[in-house]
Amino acid sequence: MQEELKPDPQIEPSQVPDQKPGVExxxxxxxxxxxxxxxxxxxxxxxxxxxxxxxxxxxIVKSAEIAKGSFYRYFKDKEALVASLIQxxxxxxxxxxxxxxxxxxxxxxxxxxKAAYFExxxxxxxxxxxxxxxxxxxxxxxxxxxxxxxxxxRQLTRDIGALALETTEKAHSKGLLKPISxxxxxxxxxxxxxxxxxQILSGEEVENLLELPAAVAELIFYGLHKPE
Length: 228
Hints:
With 228 residues, the protein is mainly α. It has two domains: 27-73, Arc Repressor Mutant, subunit A, CATH 1.10.10.60; 78-224, Tetracycline Repressor, domain 2 (Orthogonal Bundle), CATH 1.10.357.10. 68% of the residues lie in helices and 0% in strands. α1 packs across α2 (57-64) and α7 crosses α8 (182-201). The protein starts with 26 loop residues before the first helix and ends with a helix.
């Protein structure tokens, strides 16, 4: 009897065929989702090694050990596969930024605003370390035009930047931050955080790894808020 496929919990592709879905949680449903996961896992490894643009669908199906026709049962094209890989991470990051923005908008004191940024840092740390390879793919592919198979990642980059800028502008509206351009400070912060993450995920040694979320939040907060 063939062993039932078990998906890697790190990746949760959002797209599965809707024909003959079977009972949710049943054997057919589990096997179909596991097959989707098998394709996603193979693609992620290849994308990290060779880049999204260069990797072909033929290479993906060969690595996943499936027929090419099976790929198209689960994904319309390579862009749809990339979207499935990045969507769970993107939804969680954007959700965390939205919560932070709401907390900053409601903050009436330095301490309340500080708490909002620290909560964001802790939430993002949990998200980041739950899907490090997907995050590494994001960092690797985030720059470029909004076209081609990497488009979902580059759209996410723009969405994250827009929400981060919106949060900074809300903080400025409270009069609690230094009069620095919100756009400039947002770009500086995002760039620094992404570079730090890239170093960590590339295996470079970083001191006090578990303390980094709080350290980053404190650096951002005390670097931007007005002295009393």
